[in-house]
Each structure stands twice: as structure tokens, then as C-alpha cells.
Amino acid sequence: MQIGLVGLHNSGKTLLLNTLAGIEKTEYHKSEEAKLEVIKVPDERLNNLTYIFNPKKQVNATIEIFDIPGLRVSDDGKVRITTSFLNNVKNNDALFYVIRHFENASVPHPMNRINSLADIEFLETEFLFSDLSFLENRIEKLKKDILKRKEDRLTKELEVIEKCYEHTNNELPLRTLDLNEKDISLLSGFQLLTLKPLAIAINFDENSMQDASSIIGEIKEKLGQQNLEIIPFSAEIEYELSKLEPEDQQMFMEEYGIKESALDKILRTAFKVLGLQSFFTVGEDETRAWTIKKNYTAQQAAGVIHTDFYNKFIRAEVVHYDDFMKYKSFSKCKEAGVWRLEGKEYIVADGDILNIRHS
Length: 359
Ligand SMILES: Nc1nc2c(ncn2[C@@H]2O[C@H](COP(=O)(O)OP(=O)(O)O)[C@@H](O)[C@H]2O)c(=O)[nH]1
Ligand SMILES: [Mg+2]
What we know:
Elements: E1 2-6, H1 13-21, E2 35-40, H2 44-53, E3 57-59, E4 62-67, H3 83-90, E5 94-101, H4 116-148, H5 152-169, H6 181-187, E6 198-204, H7 212-223, E7 229-233, H8 235-242, H9 246-256, H10 263-273, E8 276-281, E9 286-293, H11 298-305, H12 307-311, E10 313-320, H13 321-327, H14 330-336, E11 340-342, E12 352-358
Parallel strand pairs: 1-4, 1-5, 3-9, 5-6, 6-7
Antiparallel strand pairs: 2-4, 8-9, 10-11, 10-12
Bound molecules: guanosine-5'-diphosphate and magnesium ion (MG).
Residues 7, 9-15, 30, 70, 102, 104, 107, 203, 205, 234-236 line the site of guanosine-5'-diphosphate (GDP).
């Protein structure tokens, strides 16, 4: 599962990803290469479990983030979508737009403007066009095929594709269309861009940060997507912050009037948008957060730990983190009746602590 950072050139994508990965500015060149980093997902629950079990090591869940080279001005002075850009975007399970709202005279914006709403609309419109032209071609092809052989499968697909086409033609992203699971699995191979789950991070500077919430409110209203996750942050401040010792961080944040680093929020949102969740395993050797998709069964979750655990699964011992923190030991959880034995069909909840019994 991979989330892609999408935006115009110089919006702060690489600085954000390098800060998340702990890479110093001096260590990277501004080569505009696509790159993938595996990033640790912070989780306070896991830290608390480590505190209780005091194991040899703690292993956090990870997330893959892909830095897509941003759009630049081409020879005719316009910013144009390229095929390689679209292909890079298609390659991701979810998208994170990184949108510029910082002033920096030495770093030109490709369209010479600081207008976060316009930049979001630019991307959304291009992606809508891309989907629309794909859907148009698909409809044409399906109609031809149906003339040749009237298969049920083809007419069903045509129905779904036409529904998508109509929605896209009304300039609405496919993620706002009500689709059932069957429709979604039918569409999944097509890599439709506006169907990909989306979150937005807006990169403010220290002067505009205090207006962030009103600007974001306005953007949500204009886009008509109140549920869209839009996170304000400052790539530059986060970078500076990440280089400080913990005792100096508080003072630095007060100076800029920010309460907490936005990096955790960005990672948690990426995790959520990808439809991922965590379960934990605990013991003397390690406490560990594992990444699974929502609705995974106990047996599927066991398979993430080890294929043998999937094949030889007998039962899962389950205590939810919230229950565990009330009693702080498995024996007390048993006495209180919150420790359970579950079978292979059990749907794992975010924050379950599992111990897999296998043959
Ligand atoms: N002042 C200021 N400069 C920033 C900020 N974010 C990024 N930059 C600068 O903008 C330039 C482009 O950033 P980069 O991350 O390479 O952009 P990308 O093209 O989206 O990958 C770099 O020189 C950054 O230091 C910010 O929040 N404030
Ligand atoms: Mg870059």
C-alpha cells in the first residue's frame, strides 16, 4: 500500500518526505527523481505497551510514501500534465496533494501565484479530464464489443462506466460518487485518478499559518467536499523542528504559535485514507504494530505475521488495547472477561492485541 505526494513543482513535497524520513537538506540534491521512502508511523498506544512490557525492542507500523516529481512550466510557458506524471500518480493506492501556500521569492511557483484553492482545482480538473477521456474510450469499446457478443458481463460494466462518466462529466470527482463494493472492484483495475482516496496537506509559511483554519474552511466550501481531510503544516518549520533536541522544540513551537508537529497528523491521515489499521503483538522480545487493511479476519492478520500462522491457524487470543490499559495484565483481563478466544473469521478491530495459536 502506497500513498503518493502530488503537486506542482516547489510545493514542498520533497522537503516534507525528507523530514518524515529524517534526511538532512544537505544530503539531498534537488534532482527531481521519483522516490519511495518507508516511513515509521508513530503510535502512542504502542509506546504505552512498550512501557508496560519493557521488551528488547519496539517495531512501529510503516507506510510507503512516494514522492512524485512536480509539474513544471514547459517551453511554451504553460504548466502541462505529462504522461509520465499521470503514470506516476496512477501507481498509488491513495493520494496526498501537497499544496503551496508559502511565500518564498527565491523559490518560484510554476504559475507565479500563491493561491492554494486554484492549485487544488488545477490538479482536480486535470485528473477529471484524464478520467473522463478514459471513460469515454471505454464506453465506445464496450458498445462495440456488445454489438459483437451480448454478454451479461459487458452490459453490467457499461452500466457502471456510464454512471461514472455522467458523474465525471458533471465535474465531480469519482470519490464523491456512491458506489457499491461490486462497482468498486469492477473499476479497481482502471486506476481512475479521481476515485483514489485523497487527503490534502497545505504548506503555509509562518506568517499565513494563523489564517490556516479560515482558508481551509473556505476551500472545503468551494470544493463542496466537507469530509475531505485538509491538514495545515509548514514544511520549513517541521524541518527545523525535527533537527532540534526535544527540550528546545517547545520553545521553538511557541515562537511560531504552533501547538504540535503536524507530521504525526499527516501520517495518521495517510494511514486512514489508505484504509489501513493496526493490531499489536506484545512479548518480552518485542512490542510491535502490524499494518492490515480494514475488515481483515484474524486468519488474514495472522498471515501478515507469518504465512505459517495463516496455514496453521487455530485460534486468536484477543484483548483490545483500551481494555488492556484498564487492567494492564492478561490475567486481570481474563478475570474481567475482556480476554477472548476468536476463530479465523473474526474481524480484527483497530487496536486489538493478538496472540495467534497455531499448530
Ligand atoms: N519559506 C519556505 N520555503 C519552503 C517551504 N517548503 C518548502 N520550501 C522551499 O521550497 C523549495 C522547494 O521545496 P521542495 O520540497 O523541493 O518542493 P517540491 O518540488 O514540491 O519537491 C525548497 O528550497 C524548500 O526549502 C516552506 O514552508 N516555507
Ligand atoms: Mg521534489
